[in-house]
Every structure is written in C-alpha cells, then in structure tokens.
C-alpha cells in the first residue's frame, strides 16, 4: 500500500473514531451532571433540562459539596497521573514530533479526568478531552502503518479537529481549526483531509447525539447600529481577551507532581463552590452564562457580575492545576462583557439588540484569546445557526479587534 493510501485509510478511521469519542464523552458528561446535581435529563413534556437549570435547582450546599469532590478529583487525579504515568504530551507538542505521538493510556485517563471534572462543575471547557483522546487513538496506527512525518502530523491535527467537530456538532469549524490553528497551512491535501475527518466525525456523533443545536435562540435581530457597535467594541473586547491570556499565563501555581497540589486543588474548588452557592451560573464550561445573555434573561449589572466571577473561577481552577479547554469560558467572558457594553451604547446612541451584541462579543473574545479569528466566526455561526446577516457585524468586530491586537503587540515589541 502506498503512503497516500495508508494516510487516507488512517484519516477515514480517524473520522469514525473521533465521532465515537465525541459521542461517548458527551454522554458520560451528561450522566455525571445529572447524578451529581440530582436533576432529570428531560421534563415531563419531553424537552431537555440544561445543566444551567439543573445546577440552579440543586441546593446551595449540594453545589458546594460537589465542587469539593471536584477539587479532590483534580488534585488526586492529576497528581497521580503525573507522578506515576508517562509524561503527558500536548497536541501542539505532538505536532512538532508527530512520529512519537501521544502516550495512549495516560492521554485517555487525562481526557476522562477533564470530562469528569467539567461535569462536576469545573469552570473550564470540555473540548480538549475529545481532541486529545482522538489524537491518542490516531497515534496508535502511525507506526503500524509506517506513516512519514508529514502524514503523521496531518493525521494528528485532523484527529484533534474531528474531536472538536464531534463534541460541538461543528464540522466546518472543526475543519478551519485544523487549518488555521493547528497546521497553519491551506494546501489542497490538508483542506480535503480536515474536511473528511471533521464531517465524518460529526456524522458519526449525530447517530448517538442527534443533530443538536448547542444554543437554540430566538431569531437574532441585526441592524445598522449593531454594525457600528461591533466595529467600535472590537478593540475593547480584544484588549480584554489579551488581558485574560495574561492573567491565565502564570498558572498552575505548583507542578502537578507535587503532593501539595491536592490540598491546593481542594481549597480552590471549595472557593468556587462557595461562589456557586450564590451564582450557580459560573459552573461548567460557560454555556450557562451564554444562554442567559443570548436570550436576554439577565440585566447588564448581572452580566458584569458574571464576567468578574467567571473570570475568577477560571483562574482558581487553573491555579489549582485543573486541565480543560478555554473555548466556551472565553465565549462567556466575551458575551457577558458585550451584553453590558451594549446596554451602555443603547443609553446614548441608536438602539441595537443587546442579545445579538452578546453573540458578536463571544465571537470576538474567542477569536482573539485563542488566536483563531476565522474559526471563531464559523464556530459561533454553527453553534447558534444565526442568520447570514450576522456575518458583517461578526467580521467588523473581529477585524478591529485583531488590528488592535497586532498594533498593541507591535508596540510592546518595539
């Protein structure tokens, strides 16, 4: 079998495995959430109950107890994994040395720990777990098929994108994530491979999860004032995203193989649990806050409060050594900031829809903080299934934000 035939066979298998991984991890997360917080999956009329609603219905002391348990899982789990397992390999590191791949057993345990802790209320995202587990499976057949370095790199990147696409039901965003963020190349082969694996993974995941719209929203209004607000708010949201990057950079406080990580993690997550007794919307990956502002179920004061408390909760989790993604937490920080700024705009300037502004803010903050502006735009459109008319405000906000970010970085390096 030629190198090309081996590569495309591996890509086909990777797409299927990525879909299964996304489906299984999603079901596991929901199972743990329902039992930890004591709520049913569906109402009597058959509509699903969201994690936000389930956490809000749980008693405050139950939320505190669950987060304390989450702290024990974070501290003991990652300490044991670092102390007794082989060194973990990030996807970025694996892309630099693709023939070495990722250690399979340790990566699977690492991914399961992420899903378990996010299900218990860790304020970090869930997307890194399916990305890493899919890449670990792809690593199994790199040597067996005798792939060369370039083919192995493409396979690992596509596996990562497939995991993202499957867990969020975003095939095109998963494709762009591979090309823009992981590989940084747009060759015909890379585009075809990324499309194949992300679309196939999404199709497989839909067999078990259905064609789920992550954020079912009322029809989003778009007007001219929104376009001007997006262009004006872009640099401010981009600046906030840069600040978020910098505040998260020093963490964790201790190396994860240090036994003192266990009490540190317990203390940090008890603190998060205490906050959640009063503001349960900070729990989980950030979807709860997005749901509130996208649907206009909160005022601007509450939105700013959520921004501050979610930011603090994410930093506490990172300081304690927890792993997880930052995609949805970044979205929540951007959406809540944008919702509040829209209220200020509407006080003095032509009115525009605050809920739609929140969607734009989530996109801009995500694009800048994760260095993936194109992926962020498509990701939000697929998550919300927003109308095409929203593209112009999204692009205007992203353009001014990225321009301001580049100008700031150039000034810093001058």
UniProtKB/TrEMBL annotation:
Superkingdom in the source lineage: Bacteria
Broad class of the protein's primary localization: membrane
Cited PANTHER family: CHLORIDE CHANNEL PROTEIN CLC-E
GO MF annotation terms: chloride channel activity
Subcellular location, record wording: Membrane
GO cellular component: chloride channel complex
Keywords, ordered alphabetically: Chloride, Chloride channel, Ion channel, Ion transport, Membrane, Transmembrane, Transmembrane helix, Transport
InterPro entries, alphabetized: Cl-channel_core (IPR014743), ClC (IPR001807), ClC-type_chloride_channel (IPR050368)
Transmembrane segments: 7-25, 64-81, 154-179, 185-205, 226-244, 264-283, 304-324, 330-349, 356-380
Lipid bilayer topology: Multi-pass membrane protein
Name assigned to this protein: Chloride channel protein
Recorded coiled-coil stretches: none
Pfam family of the protein (one): Voltage_CLC
């Amino acid at each position: 079998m030629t190198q090309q035939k081996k590569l495309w066979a591996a890509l086909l298998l990777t797409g299927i495995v990525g879909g299964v991984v996304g489906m299984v991890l999603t079901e596991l997360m929901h199972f743990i959430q329902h039992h930890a917080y004591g709520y049913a999956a569906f109402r009597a009329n058959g509509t699903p109950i969201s994690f936000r609603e389930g956490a809000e219905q749980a008693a405050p002391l139950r939320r505190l107890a669950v987060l304390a348990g989450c702290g024990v899982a974070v501290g003991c789990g990652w300490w044991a994994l670092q102390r007794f397992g082989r060194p973990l390999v990030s996807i970025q590191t694996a892309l630099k040395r693709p023939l070495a791949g990722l250690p399979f057993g340790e990566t699977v345990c690492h991914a399961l720990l992420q899903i378990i802790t996010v299900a218990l209320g860790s304020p970090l995202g869930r997307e890194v777990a399916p990305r890493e587990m899919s890449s670990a499976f792809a690593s199994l057949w790199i040597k067996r098929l005798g792939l060369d370095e370039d083919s192995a790199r493409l396979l690992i990147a596509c596996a990562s994108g497939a995991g993202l696409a499957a867990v969020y039901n975003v095939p095109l965003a998963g494709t762009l994530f591979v090309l823009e963020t992981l590989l940084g190349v747009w060759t015909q082969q890379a585009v075809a491979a990324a499309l194949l694996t992300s679309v196939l993974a999404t199709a497989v995941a839909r067999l078990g999860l259905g064609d789920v719209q992550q954020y079912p929203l009322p029809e989003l209004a778009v007007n001219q004032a929104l376009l001007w607000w997006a262009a004006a708010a872009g640099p401010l949201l981009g600046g906030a995203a840069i600040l978020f990057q910098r505040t998260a950079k020093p963490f964790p406080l201790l190396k994860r193989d240090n036994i003192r990580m266990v009490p540190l993690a317990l203390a940090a997550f008890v603190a998060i649990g205490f906050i959640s007794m009063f503001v349960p919307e900070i729990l989980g990956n950030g979807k709860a806050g997005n749901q509130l502002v996208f649907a206009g179920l909160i005022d601007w004061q509450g939105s700013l409060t959520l921004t501050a408390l979610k930011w603090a909760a994410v930093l506490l989790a990172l300081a304690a050594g927890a792993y997880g993604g930052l995609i949805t937490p970044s979205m929540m920080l951007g959406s809540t900031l944008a919702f509040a700024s829209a209220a200020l705009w509407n006080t003095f300037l032509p009115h525009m829809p605050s809920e739609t502004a929140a969607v734009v803010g989530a996109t801009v903050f995500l694009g800048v903080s994760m260095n993936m502006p194109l992926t962020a735009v498509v990701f939000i459109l697929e998550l919300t299934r927003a109308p095409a008319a929203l593209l112009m405000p999204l692009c205007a906000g992203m353009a001014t934000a990225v321009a301001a970010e580049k100008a700031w970085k150039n000034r810093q390096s001058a």
